[in-house]
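QA checklist item 7 of 12: single-chain prediction sanity check.
[x] sequence parsed
[x] length recorded as 286
[x] structure emitted
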Amino acid sequence: LQELKDTHLSPYFGSIEAGVQTIMASFNSWNGVKAHGNEFLLRDMLKRNLGFTGLVVGDWNGHAQVDGCSPVQCDQAVEAGVDIMMLSKRDWKGYLQNTTSSAKKGSITAEKIDDSVTRILTVKALYGAMTTPALRAAGIKERAPPSQRPGAGQSSVLEAAEHRETAREAVQKSLVMLKNGVKGATGKPIPLSTTGKYLVAGRCADNIGLQNGGWTKDWQGSANYPNHLFGSKSESIYEGIKKATERGGSATLYQSDGEIPDLSSYDALIFCTGEDPYSEYLGDRH
């Protein structure tokens, strides 16, 4: 319990105090009990001990990993404190039917249903997704639907110059250089001159799908998406190097099925490699 408080709960104290209203249950286990079905973590610790008044939402089919549960039924997760389940499109009807049946039989208590409904409606009201005379009197205005809010439908903001500059800054500040040159060498190869002549090679050199990774275009991402699908302003590594050296330098892309060029004619070979894109547990390494 002390480890839980000292190590894992510290981010929650400030977040709850700041007014966070939604928390997601994880796929993790605590003392062998999955978080989605762990009443100690969700009801006792989070809601009662820490005073969290918002709602707990499940992760995608996370309730199905609780012992004795399935994607279409998990009374334990409801009773443990999950207020909203995240379901796949093939399971929601069965889950709704089974959960309604459990509530009628008393397997899911009226107290828990009332608590979840209260939390959900409270969060909606505080967010402005719904309104009542009392809420309006308290100064809480109803929000316009997303389709009517500023910026709605303006896809151009996804490639705004200031956003791209922020992305570049994030990459520059998060990249880690493992080694720059060989021991005893008089010079360092990096940074490279923009006036140099470079050969760019490797499977990741001109493949934005590999460059972006998972959750890009689809869940797992793919190396098979052509570059143009990522927008007119996107750049592969090769395209970025080519653009950076267009005044006084040059960049040539080496195709793996082509003739090996004379490397001595280049100032440097930039080799770009990496693993296939993935997301979540399909990328786990044990």
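[x] summary fact logged: The chain has a mean pLDDT of 90.
[ ] second reviewer sign-off
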